[in-house]
Amino acid sequence: MAKSNKKGPSKTVDIFCQSCNAKLFKYRKGGKGALVKCFIERISQDYTNISCTCPQCEKVFARETLIKGTPAYKIIGGKVWFK
After folding, report:
1. Which of 8, 54, 67, 74 is a Cys-bridge partner for 42, taking CB atoms 3.0 to 4.6 Å apart?
2. How far apart are the two ends of the chain, measured CA to CA in Å?
C-alpha cells in the first residue's frame, strides 16, 4: 500500500468543533473534499489538551487509528467543520 505524503500540501485549514466552535487544529489538507481523516504528521498546530477531545466542551470528535500504516485521526461525521 502507498503511504501518505509526509510533507503534505502547503495549504492549511483551521478545524473547529461543531458544537462550541473551539479551534482544534491547523491542518495541511489536500484536495477539496470533505474532512474524513487527519494524518497526525500533517497537523501543524494542535490546540487540544487530550487527543481527539475538544478543549472547551470536552466532546470526542475523532478516533485514533492507523491508515495505510500511518497514525491518523478518523473524524466522526458532523463533529467538526473547517475553513
Report:
1. 8
2. 30
Q: Report pTM.
A: 0.88
pLDDT in tens, 8-58: 688 899 999 999 999 999 999 988 999 999 999 999 999 999 999 999 999
Q: Nearest Cα to 17, choosing from 49, 45, 59, 73?
A: 59
**Full residue range of the structural domain in which residue 56 is found:** 12-82
Q: At which residue does the C-alpha cell 484536495 appear?
A: 31
Cross-strand bridge partners of residue 46: 25
Domain contains 76: yes
Query: What is d(CA 75, CA 54) in angstroms, rounded to the nearest whole number?
Result: 12
Residue with cell 470528535: 61
The answer to whether 61 touches 80, Cβ cutoff 8 Å, is yes
Of the candidates 73, 54, 55, the one whose C-alpha atom is nearest the C-alpha of residue 63 is 73
